[in-house]
Design goal:
Elements (H helix, E strand, L loop, with lengths): L16 H14 L8 E2 L2 H8 L3 H13 L3 E3 L5 E3 L21 H6 L18 H17 L11 H14 L9 E4 L1 H12 L7 E6 L3 H9 L3 E8 L2 E2 L1 H7 L5 E4 L13 H14 L2 E5 L24 E6 L11 E4 L5 H10 L6 H12 L2 H24 L7 E3 L2 E5 L6 H8 L7 E2 L13 E5 L8 H15 L1
Parallel strand pairs: 5-6, 5-8, 8-9, 9-10
Antiparallel strand pairs: 1-3, 2-3, 4-11, 6-7, 10-11, 12-13, 13-15, 14-15
Helix pairs in contact: 1-3, 2-3, 5-12, 6-12, 7-8, 7-11, 13-15, 14-15
């Protein structure tokens, strides 16, 4: 039987003859030359036609059979297996940069001056941390006895519990802490562990962190934008829009991106609403104690007497986002369901990075690093304010950024896109809003990436760019 396709064997190739036969038949199947049900020559006939040993063809057929590409049905011979219809006869390869999630590319622009969300890497004690991490890695490999605790290493959970008691006034025990893969991992685990139903309402600050909003939508929740003013989230506004919401996500310490701290009155009102309705409050403590104006306000969770607050923190702003290290402080009643969810869906990162961070905290390096960075960031903020003044660009403090508001007619996204070519990476304020009608135009200038020299020239380039789009 003559095969309905051509097979050209090259004995000078490194690939074996069996592999060349397998690859040739596979290519014919993918190209549509061999349709489902098409009969193939017996391995004896094909061996004779190709002038190879029978075992060579049989080896190729066996591999195709194992891949479920062909089937053998006794006397009826060997046929091409049925396959789902394909929209195209070729494999479309998506370039790596094109496959990046839109949310990632929006907030990972840079590196550049004014980039938000990243610490001053040049100020991090990388040599010290590398030595600690190397030791932790040796410890990790010396203890390869089984699966690590999916909730996280006990050493790190103890250090976090002790640190939160001092810095955020949160009284908790290590069993209440779940180590996660950054903030996103913590939020995803929380949304799954709470067992929320599709369509339930979720309060979301307006403006608010787009990653959080998109996560709520992926969880099939209905996002309810709640306005923000100088006292933080407008709780009355949330109650008016969705009194029966299942959860509320709030950045109480410093609202992202506008910067106000949730007032005491609003905090008590929010906690009272959650207590009476049975709702959960997710506190995104993204800056922790790394606040530049005086002593940081206590965490919202520190006032929670009804155990309705789920506190999420991370080391992205204080150490590095490359660690992918975050944590959740869960109410006592949720310790078991969160532990189960972590075990089955999102176990903690590898032990080495956890053990290194625990040692970094235990030996006092973490607190010293935070104190130093607060001084550096406060200086950079002041330098940025002074550098913007000559260009008539008034800005106000918004967390670890300066908010530069623009006329409503100015396209901040276009400015941010063009700025990248100039080595600048501001974040457009409009992207933080849910509805186009409520969007405000502005630029968020991260203070952590403000350069020590050449700042005036950078502000000049930014000013020139803004004028071009105004």
């Amino acid at each position: 039987m003559t095969p309905p396709f051509s097979l050209a064997l090259d004995r000078s190739k490194k690939a074996s003859l069996a592999e060349q036969i397998r690859a040739g038949i596979l290519a014919a199947i993918n190209a549509g030359v061999l349709q489902p049900g098409a009969r193939l020559p017996s391995w004896r006939d094909l061996a004779a036609q190709l002038g190879v040993a029978r075992g060579t063809v049989r080896s190729a057929y066996d591999r195709l059979h194992d891949a479920q590409l062909i089937v053998t049905a006794g006397a009826t011979g060997t046929h091409v297996a049925d396959r789902p219809p394909s929209a195209t006869s070729r494999v479309d390869v998506v370039a790596e940069e094109e496959s990046l999630p839109a949310m990632y590319t929006m907030f990972a622009s840079g590196p550049g001056i004014f980039q938000m969300g990243v610490p001053a890497f040049e100020c991090f004690p990388s040599g010290l941390f590398a030595r600690i991490r190397a030791k932790a890695a040796r410890t990790e490999f010396a203890a390869l006895r089984g699966f690590p605790d999916p909730r996280g290493e006990g050493e790190l959970r103890r250090e976090i519990a002790a640190h939160l008691a001092l810095s955020r006034s949160i009284e908790c025990v290590p069993s209440q802490i779940i180590i996660t893969s950054g903030f996103a991992g913590a939020l995803g685990l929380t949304l799954r562990a709470l067992g929320l139903r599709e369509g339930q309402s979720a309060w979301m600050e307006e403006p608010g962190y787009p990653i959080t909003r998109h996560a709520l939508q992926l969880a099939q929740l209905t996002c309810v934008p709640v306005p923000v003013d100088n006292d933080g989230m407008d709780v009355d506004g949330g109650i008016e829009r969705a009194p029966d919401a299942a959860i509320a996500v709030v950045t109480a310490g410093q609202q992202a991106p506008l910067g106000p701290t949730l007032s005491l009155g609003r905090r008590l009102q929010l906690l009272d609403w959650a207590s009476h309705t049975g709702a959960w409050i997710i506190e995104d403590d993204y800056l922790g104690e790394l606040q530049l104006r005086g002593r940081a306000a206590p965490a919202l969770a520190s006032l929670d007497r009804a155990n309705r607050v789920i506190h999420i923190g991370s080391f992205s702003k204080t150490l590095s986002p490359t660690l992918r290290l975050g944590f959740i402080v869960v109410p006592p009643a949720l310790v078991v369901p969160f532990g189960n969810a972590a075990t089955c869906l999102a176990p903690a990162p590898g032990p080495a990075v956890q053990l290194a961070t625990a040692a970094f905290m235990r030996e006092g390096h973490y607190l010293r690093h935070l104190r130093r960075m607060k001084r550096i960031y406060a200086q950079r903020r002041d330098h940025l304010v002074a550098a913007l003044e000559p260009f008539g660009l008034p800005a106000r403090v918004a967390g670890l950024a300066m908010l530069l508001e623009l006329p409503a007619s100015t396209c901040d996204t276009s400015i941010a896109r063009e700025a990248l070519a100039l080595g600048l990476a501001p974040s457009p304020l409009s992207q933080w809003y849910t509805h186009p009608a409520s969007r405000r135009s502005g630029l968020l200038l991260g203070v952590t990436t403000v350069p020590e020299s050449g700042l005036l020239a950078s502000c000049d380039r930014l000013h020139t760019l803004i004028k071009q789009f105004s």
